[in-house]
Predict the structure.
Amino acid sequence: MSVFFPEGKKIKVAGEQFTIMPFVLRTRTKVLRILTEVCLEVAKKNTQLTPAEFITAAGDRLIEVYEIVLDKPKEWLEEKITLADELEIIMAIIEVNDIPFLLSQVKNLIGSIKAPKAA
C-alpha cells in the first residue's frame, strides 16, 4: 500500500529555514477557524484585496496562525517577521493546504445552513 506524505514547502523567514506542512487534525481546526473568521471579516470590507492588503486588513489575528505553522512564540514573530515574510508564509500555507478549496467548502457549508423560520 502506497501512502502519500507531502514534503511541504520550504521557505526562509527572518533568516531561518522552515517547512510549511499540510495541516494535521491537531492544528487544522484552529487554523481554519482563524482564517475563516479573517476572510469573513475582510470580505465585509472589500472582496478584492491583494495579499498584502489582506494581511494588513487581518491585523494581528494572523500572528496565531504564524505561531502554529512556524512553531515560534509571538514575541519572536513580532520582532522578526516583515511584511515580505508574511506574504511568503501565507502563500506557502495556501499552496500546501489548498486553502481556496477549503474556504469554498466552508462557504458552501455556511450557505447550506438554513436559519430557523420565524414563528
Remarks:
- DSSP finds six helices and two strands in the chain.
- The beta strands are 9-13, 16-20.
- The two ends are 55 Å apart (CA to CA).
- Residues 27 and 68 are 7 Å apart (CA to CA).
